[in-house]
Design a protein that fits this description.
Number of strands: 10
Low-confidence stretches: none
Distance between the termini: 19 Å
Number of helices: 3
Radius of gyration: 17 Å
Strand content: over 45%
Structural class: mainly beta
Oligomer: single chain
Length: about 180
């Protein structure tokens, strides 16, 4: 995945901050089912994201529009919390729920029928461990448990004999660079 974005925030106090982000994501999506894993759609999305950082729980919301493959939309919302650990590490547990339009979900979960409409498609619980070398450069590791929700999405994955079924674990590593 490649993401380019602009992020700006406003501090209300030392501990409270609202931040908005607008960006573009390029990625190859292999899908969660046997049929989708053979397509490797190159999706391109523009998105907006907002969050309210505070000392308790940080709620966030994002809206994405794929302008290359699905021409559909995806909404996501969740709660996260950063915990500062020794040696400059940060641990962030995160709970997310997301869903999209029928066109968007049909590409992610074939043979999902786009005419079935839009709806919630997943819940996810993740842990991210990150380290910042300086203000401009950092690395992170993420592990997550994702579960597909919604009868139409779950049924589409089961009908196709997808290797992930309806619940799966995944992991990722990343590099953060800002200027």
């Amino acid at each position: 995945d490649w993401t380019a974005y602009f992020r700006h925030g406003c501090d209300f106090s030392e501990d409270w901050r609202i931040a908005a982000e607008i960006g573009h994501i390029w990625y190859k999506y292999h899908g969660l089912t046997a049929a989708a894993s053979k397509t490797y759609a190159t999706m391109e999305e523009i998105y907006i994201r907002a969050e309210l950082a505070n000392p308790f729980l940080t709620p966030y919301f994002s809206f994405r529009h794929d302008h290359r493959v699905t021409h559909g939309e995806f909404l996501e919302g969740g709660l996260k919390r950063d915990f500062t650990l020794p040696a400059g590490l940060t641990l962030t547990p995160d709970a997310t729920v997301g869903g999209g339009t029928g066109d968007y979900l049909a590409v992610l979960y074939p043979p999902f029928d786009a005419s079935a409409g839009s709806g919630v498609s997943y819940v996810q619980f993740a842990l991210t461990l990150s380290y910042r070398f300086n203000d401009s450069f950092g690395v992170h590791l993420k592990g997550a448990f994702s579960a597909l929700t919604g009868d139409d999405v779950r049924s589409a994955v089961r009908r196709d004999g997808g290797t992930y079924e309806n619940e799966f674990l995944w992991a990722a590593a990343g590099v953060d660079w800002s200027f």
